[in-house]
Amino acid sequence: MTHEPGRPSRRAVLLGVAGCVLGAAGRVGAILAHSRIELPPAARADLRGGRIHDGVPTAMRRLAGTYRMYVSVVRSGHPLDVFGTSRPSGHPRGRAFGV
After folding, report:
1. Is residue 42 situated within a structural domain?
2. Rounded to the nearest 10 degrees, how much is the dihedral formed by the CA atoms of 50, 54, 58, 59?
3. Which domain holds residue 82?
4. Does the global pTM surpass 0.85?
5. How far is CA 51 from CA 24, 84, 95, in A?
């Protein structure tokens, strides 16, 4: 396989993906262990499952710097639409959490 100038090599792409995965795992691990964040079992499973946006653990960590949080839902158990509307919810896509 030849490398095209100006494009990242396959090795660089794979190393970058591995770094993103490890970074996300570290953020999730920090949330799961955080003393100011209470999570129900389903929310813990959602975080461990890795199907959440990177902004979710980042926002949780920032909020926990000021507040003690009791998270009710991340993905699992939330309807597809925002309650009482026909607007799609961010929860099933892993982009929101309820506190």
Report:
1. yes
2. -100
3. 8-99
4. no
5. 11, 25, 9
